[in-house]
TrEMBL record, chain A:
<dbReference type="InterPro" id="IPR015016">
    <property type="entry name" value="SF3b_su1"/>
</dbReference>
<dbReference type="InterPro" id="IPR054573">
    <property type="entry name" value="PP2A/SF3B1-like_HEAT"/>
</dbReference>
<keyword id="KW-0539">Nucleus</keyword>
<dbReference type="GO" id="GO:0003729">
    <property type="term" value="F:mRNA binding"/>
</dbReference>
<dbReference type="GO" id="GO:0000245">
    <property type="term" value="P:spliceosomal complex assembly"/>
</dbReference>
<dbReference type="Pfam" id="PF22646">
    <property type="entry name" value="PPP2R1A-like_HEAT"/>
</dbReference>
<dbReference type="GO" id="GO:0005681">
    <property type="term" value="C:spliceosomal complex"/>
</dbReference>
<protein>
    <recommendedName>
        <fullName>Splicing factor 3B subunit 1</fullName>
    </recommendedName>
</protein>
<keyword id="KW-0677">Repeat</keyword>
TrEMBL record, chain B:
<dbReference type="Pfam" id="PF03660">
    <property type="entry name" value="PHF5"/>
</dbReference>
<protein>
    <recommendedName>
        <fullName>PHD finger-like domain-containing protein 5A</fullName>
    </recommendedName>
</protein>
<dbReference type="InterPro" id="IPR005345">
    <property type="entry name" value="PHF5"/>
</dbReference>
<comment type="similarity">
    <text>Belongs to the PHF5 family.</text>
</comment>
<dbReference type="GO" id="GO:0000398">
    <property type="term" value="P:mRNA splicing, via spliceosome"/>
</dbReference>
């Protein structure tokens, strides 16, 4: 319950923060963005999670940046999914859910964010077992599938006939669904997939298997004996559909009882979410009305039984009792053996309430009790069977992994991996898989469990075969997850699974799913198949795919087969080229299939293939050109969109004149579709235009006359700028058109729109202008257009909103920079005006505006210099200098970067304010902890130290040195590197002694990162001032008997040897005694670091006549080969590698030969490892080093070259 | 990076003509040993790792957008590590995935 408290605390804290936010924004709204100090960080962190934003995030789920390939699905399913997701995510609901689930900050529960489409994963049933849990053969599975499909078709027909006859269809529909769900729940106790009745109750599985009812199961039990569904003893031939309901009415009564039992059970859980689910379940499980039953069963011949007089609905309190009652219902309702009172009834809580549980077992969450509850029962180990003990062990490990602390997780993970074979596949997967199906699962938990599967898979290898289908059922949903990481994870598991189980098993298990009735199953199966293909080789799967794509039995199989090819193309990219011809041949006839869906997916697949093959392989597509171009005249809507897409991808592969010809053919249709209201169509049309135009065969005049007018009429309107995807596509297409027809034509048409009143639209215009000018330059632009352009850009820059997101702001800024830079010296006349604007805006009260102004200076500094406006720049420098007191760190960072760019272009000597004034002003700024400030400040200081160090006195530089030491703690790598190299510049300027003193003192600090950076700095100083200035000091420092310092010195030596390279040949004998000492030290970090240093040293002196020294050091390195710690052994082997390069493999061979045939395996192993790496590196030169084998009695080992050759 | 994360897998196919790239964060590193000094030889990737727009400019080490060419350092060249095949990292690596989910749990990162 403490969790609840924490949650409510968090909620309170957030509420109070929100209030505080409100007050602040009342005060100075435009500055809120960088509201200094800690609070602003908090805001940024938590605001991101506020309801409104979250919803958009859910809805958009834009994968494009990470994995473009998935966008190709748009026509097929992507949009549908996204649209479905939106209504479910009401802002208020979501906020509430977020607080209740997951970490309390965000809701990471997977089931809460899933769209209806994704939720269909719960509907899957195991195909390879019948209702009694017996394994079915492949043939039986296929037969079942066939039967199911026939049934569905028949049902469809019946429905149509009924509709035609005017029967009331909707009512029929609801009745059916109701019964379906109720029946399923009744089977839950006996035939659920995971033998986990409790999992069932939270999420109703929609029953799809006709034989899942208890009564019908008998029919299914003997499928081999021809157990066809239509052979059931159906008494009423009139309605075939009824055959599955031909149970005795008792079944219905059982349903009722069952529903009530469930109802009773619901009472106990106080969780509001559970209540929601409950209500839903109650609604679904509500008793059927007589009317409904009459619809299902013939009115005559049945009798309604009254409930027994002593019947009372079950209302029990403990979950255990309830479960037993639940199970008992199926057998003898009314009688039940009383249970032993359970722990709760004595008032003892089930588990300790903290995060730490008993015996190091983590706290079990409420919803996990159904899986881990067993662990809470006190049992004597001696009474348990071996299997039970094993089960408990696995359970503990899984619990540790799922909800333990990171160290617990780590040990749990290691143990479960090490003992995987001992536990066996069955017990492991029987526990892991139900956990993964849990409706309460969160992202991280899923990730951890998936990781377990991955590790276990690796260990179990072919033993997983019986579980392939079950694993696929839980892993396949990952392939269409919204997270890129989840998709990759899914792929990795499936490919490992395929490698473990083998192609034959994979095909046999997945084949039945290919023509599954559920589109969801087919979709995920296709993706999984593609992964299998990439894992096991595409060519191995091609014969199978050929058969599937030509299936005469069902269009679903053809559809899925084609889709598999599409997914393969997306996955392997140009790797399909060797099989391109075959793949296209396989799917060609899909273009003229009778099913619209097959034709569409076929066109999409062609698009994917052509995209992957670009720029090769047009020959392979010869056969499909005709049907494609014919197709665009016949299709409308989605089909047309898919065909156009395919054409768009194929045209760029063509030769020039063909491309031109085919483009002209398709263009009228494209122009017609400009007006299409369908967003999807618009995007595809834009894309196709872009692709057609980019081919060399299409002439500029043609584009200018035929495409441009309509294009601008339909796409350069404000509405297009509002949707992000449209926006992107329009910008890209216009850029491509610009590349073809030249900058002037495009810019002339849109430049006026820079003054449009809609800001998103202005941004779109600016972005296109930026891109076109970057690509083509501004040489074509005449005087008049130039004026209009500058005018528009200035207007757009000044009018941009202050509270935009960062990337939106950069568009205007970049645009301005690009325009000014491309115009170059032609800008001179406008510079005064621009500088005036900048100065004025630097004084603005809004922080964003000030920052933009400073950034702009950075962008145009080079042009100012080119225009000879040195004086103006000096002036700006002084203005910026005056603003160094800026309080907003983001703005200060920009001001520093502007100063840096000015210093860069006008040089140290001419800089105003003079460097000796500027630098002392920067020293205190180095204390600032904001990343942007630190980065820019260090850069600027480093630049000054590099170029103009003599202008500042040594004292000031020392002061800066002290500040820089603090900078080494910075979390950002680039800051660390910048400050480390600044040390080098300063040392060069003022001599190494003082700097070195500071650095060596810094080796004493505790913080590891700080010490490591210090060692790097020492090495850099050694490099820039010569090693002889440093070595005496640090070798002396090594005498201090303290671990950190000695290791620091060794590390510094290691970096130094790496940096100075060949120079180290002069020092090898000087520093060898130090390494000797380190390599004989008891502490293995000493030895590890010394090994690393020797590697660099040896590589540096290779070929410079230092073999003697290297051999000497090798003698000290060699004993470390038996080291156990992975870091030390790696460092040691690296050192040996390095020395091998320096002294040649043959010398090393003498060392290796000593142990290659040692009687102890562990000794031999490492020797062979070294031998192998030598063999890889220098196998040829080792021949000379092979030992001469003396003949022994009858055995002669000598071989002539001729003998070897033969 | 591969040096410090042993679970990262390199592609190791026959390298082609295309030059490997590094992102702003990995810029300047040797793709094998992470050294920042003495870059000597340009990295070449295989065709499959450099196909299409999204792959051709992605960082050899972390798959972010590339900003500069990737190099092998002098030491790795003398150890002939540059001849081991395409050095593009083709998996995500455990630490990155773990980090992603840990971050996601506390909502530090949008997505």
């Amino acid at each position: 319950m403490s969790q609840r408290n924490v949650d409510s605390d968090i909620a309170e804290a957030r509420a109070s923060r929100a209030k505080a936010d409100g007050q602040r924004s009342g005060g100075r709204s435009d500055d809120l963005k960088f509201g200094g100090g800690q609070t602003s960080v908090d805001d940024a962190m938590y605001d991101a999670g506020q309801a409104g934003e979250f919803v958009t995030e859910m809805v958009e789920s834009d994968h494009s940046d990470m994995d473009e390939s998935d966008d190709d699905e748009v026509v097929d399913m992507g949009t549908a999914v996204n649209k479905e997701a939106s209504p479910s995510a009401q802002p208020d609901d979501f906020a509430e859910l977020r607080e209740r689930n997951g970490s309390g900050v965000v809701n990471t529960r997977i089931s809460d964010r899933e769209s209806d489409y994704h939720k269909r994963r719960n509907n899957r049933v195991a195909l390879d077992v019948d209702s009694e849990g017996n394994k079915l053969s492949y043939r039986e599975i296929m037969e079942n599938q066939e039967v199911e499909r026939e049934k569905a078709e028949l049902e469809e027909k019946v429905r149509k006939i009924r509709e035609k006859n005017g029967e009331v269809a909707p009512q029929e529909e609801t009745a059916t669904t109701t019964t379906t769900t109720t029946t399923t729940s009744s089977t839950a106790a006996k035939g659920s997939r995971w033998d986990e009745p409790a999992a069932e109750e939270a999420k109703p599985k929609r029953r799809r298997r006709w034989d899942a009812t208890p009564v019908a199961a008998g029919v299914d039990a003997t499928p081999a004996a021809g157990g066809k569904w239509d052979e059931t003893p159906s008494a009423a031939p009139a309605a075939k559909k009824r055959s599955r309901w031909d149970a005795t009415p008792a079944a219905v009564v059982v349903e009722k009882l069952n529903a009530q039992a469930k109802e009773a059970k619901k009472d106990l859980s106080a969780d509001p979410r559970a209540t929601l689910i409950e209500q839903e379940m109650e609604f679904r499980n509500r008793p059927m009305t007589d009317e409904e039953i009459n619809n299902l069963l013939p009115a005559s011949g049945y009798k309604i039984l009254p409930p027994p007089a002593d019947y009372k609905p079950l209302r029990l309190n403990s979950s255990k009792k309830d479960m037993s009652a639940y199970a008992a219902v199926g057998q003898t309702p009314g009688f039940m053996i009383a249970q032993t009172p359970v722990r709760e009834e004595y008032g003892i809580p089930l588990g300790p309430s903290g995060t730490e549980g008993v015996d190091g077992i983590p706290f079990i969450k409420q919803e996990d009790y159904q899986y881990f509850g067993k662990l809470m029962e006190d049992k004597n180990e001696s009474e348990l069977t071996k299997e039970e003990i094993k089960e408990r062990q696995i359970m503990v490990l899984l619990l540790k992994i799922k909800s333990g602390t990171p160290p617990q997780r780590k040990t749990g993970m290691r143990q479960i991996t090490d003992r995987a074979r001992e536990f066996g596949a069955g017990p492991l997967f029987n526990q892991i898989l139900p956990l993964l199906m849990s409706p309460m699962l969160e992202d991280q938990e899923r990730h951890l469990l998936v990781k377990v599967i991955d590790r276990v898979l690796y260990k179990l290898d072919h033993l997983v075969r019986p579980y392939v289908h079950k694993i696929l059922v839980v892993i396949e949903p990952l392939l269409i997850d919204e997270d890129y990481f989840a998709r990759i994870e899914g792929r990795e598991i499936i490919s490992n699974l395929a490698k473990a189980a083998g192609l034959a098993v994979m095909i046999a298990t997945m084949r039945p799913d290919i023509d599954n009735l559920d589109e969801y199953v087919r979709n995920t199966t296709a993706r999984a198949f593609a992964v299998v293909a990439t894992a096991l080789g595409v060519q191995n799967l091609l014969p199978f795919l050929k058969a599937v794509c030509r299936s005469k039995k069902s269009w679903q199989a053809r559809h899925t087969g084609i889709k598999i090819i599409q997914q393969i193309a997306i996955l392997v990219g140009c790797g399909i080229l060797p099989y391109l011809k075959e793949m296209v041949d396989i799917i060609t006839q899909g273009l003229t299939d009778e099913q619209q869906k097959v034709r569409t997916i076929c066109a999409l697949t062609l698009a994917a293939l052509a995209e992957a093959a670009y720029p090769y392989g047009i020959e392979s597509f010869d056969g499909v050109l005709r049907p494609l171009w014919k197709g665009i005249k016949q299709h409308r809507g989605k089909g047309l969109a898919a065909f156009l897409k395919a054409i768009g991808y194929i045209i760029p592969l063509m030769e020039d004149n063909h491309a031109n010809h085919y483009t002209r053919e398709v263009m009228p249709i494209l122009i017609r579709e400009f007006q299409s209201p369908d967003e999807e169509m618009k995007k595809i049309v834009l894309k196709v235009i872009k692709q057609c135009v980019s081919t060399t065969g299409v002439t500029a005049t043609y584009v200018r006359e035929e495409i441009l007018p309509d294009f601008f009429k339909h796409f350069w309107i404000r509405r297009m700028a509002l949707d992000r995807r449209n926006y992107k596509q329009v910008v890209e297409t216009t850029e491509e058109l610009g590349n073809k027809v030249g900058a002037v034509d495009i810019i002339d048409k849109i430049v006026e729109d820079l003054k449009d009143e809609s800001e998103p639209y202005r941004r779109m215009v600016m972005e296109v202008i930026t891109k076109i000018l970057t690509n083509l330059g501004a040489s074509e632009i005449d005087q008049r257009l130039e004026e209009r352009l500058i005018d528009g850009v200035l207007y757009a820059f000044q009018e941009q909103g202050v509270d935009n997101a960062a990337e939106e702001n950069t568009i205007m800024l970049d645009g301005f920079g690009v325009v000014v830079n491309s115009l170059g010296v032609r800008c001179k006349v406008y510079l005064k005006q621009i500088a005036g604007t900048i100065k004025w805006r630097l004084n603005n009260k809004s922080a964003t505006v000030r920052m933009q102004a400073a950034d702009l200076i950075g962008k145009i500094a080079v042009v100012m210099k080119a225009c000879g406006e040195d004086q103006l720049m000096g002036h700006l420098g002084i203005v910026l200098y005056e603003y160094l007191g800026e309080e907003y760190p983001e703005v200060l960072g920009s001001i520093l970067s502007a100063l840096k760019s000015i210093v860069n272009v006008i040089g140290m000597t001419k800089m105003t304010p003079p460097i000796q004034d500027l630098l002392p002003r920067l020293t205190p700024i180095l204390k600032n902890r904001h990343e942007k400030v630190q980065e820019n400040c260090v850069d600027l200081v480093g630049r000054i130290a590099d170029r103009g160090a003599e202008m500042v006195n040594a004292k000031e530089w020392m002061r800066i040195c002290f500040e820089l030491l603090e900078m080494l703690k910075a979390p950002k790598k680039s800051i660390q590197r910048a400050s480390v190299s600044t040390f080098g510049y300063i040392a060069k300027a003022i001599g190494p002694q003082d700097v070195l003193h500071t650095l060596i003192n810094n080796l004493k600090v505790q913080d590891r990162q700080n010490r490591v950076c210090t060692t790097v700095a020492i090495a850099i100083v050694a490099e820039s001032c010569g090693p002889f200035t440093i070595l005496p000091a640090i070798m002396n420092e090594y005498r201090v008997p303290e671990l950190n310092i000695q290791n620091g010195v060794l590390k510094a030596m290691s970096f130094m040897c790496e940096y100075i390279g060949e120079m180290s040949k002069d020092y090898i004998f000087a520093i060898a005694p130090l390494f000797e000492d380190a390599l004989m030290d008891r502490d293995n970090v000493h030895r590890q670091t010394a090994c690393a240093a020797i590697r660099h040293l040896a590589l540096g002196v290779a070929g410079l006549g230092c073999e003697e020294g290297c051999i000497h050091l090798l003698n000290f390195v060699w004993p470390n080969i038996f080291e156990q710690s992975p870091h030390v052994i790696n460092a040691c082997l690296d050192a040996i590698d390095g020395i091998m390069v320096a002294i040649g493999p043959n010398y090393l061979m003498l060392y290796v030969l000593q142990g290659l045939f040692h009687p102890a395996r562990r000794v031999r192993e490492i020797y062979w490892r070294i031998y192998n790496s030598m063999y890889v590196y220098a196998g040829h030169s080792m021949v000379a080093g092979y030992p001469r084998m003396e003949d022994e009695g009858d055995n002669g080992y000598a071989m002539t070259t001729m003998e070897v050759f033969i | 990076m591969a040096k410090h994360h042993p679970d990262l897998v390199m592609c190791r196919k026959q390298p082609g003509l295309s030059v490997g790239r590094l992102c702003i964060k990995c810029e300047g590193k040797c793709v094998i040993c992470d050294s920042f000094v003495n870059p000597v030889q340009l990295v070449r990737c295989c065709d499959e790792c450099s196909y299409g727009t999204s792959h051709s400019n992605s960082c050899v080490v972390c798959s972010a957008t590339g900003v500069s060419d990737a190099y092998y350092c002098r030491e790795c060249v003398s150890l002939e590590r540059d001849r081991d095949g395409c050095p593009k990292i083709i998996n995500l690596g455990e630490s990155r995935t773990d980090l992603f989910y840990a971050k996601k749990k506390y909502g530090f990162k949008k997505r």
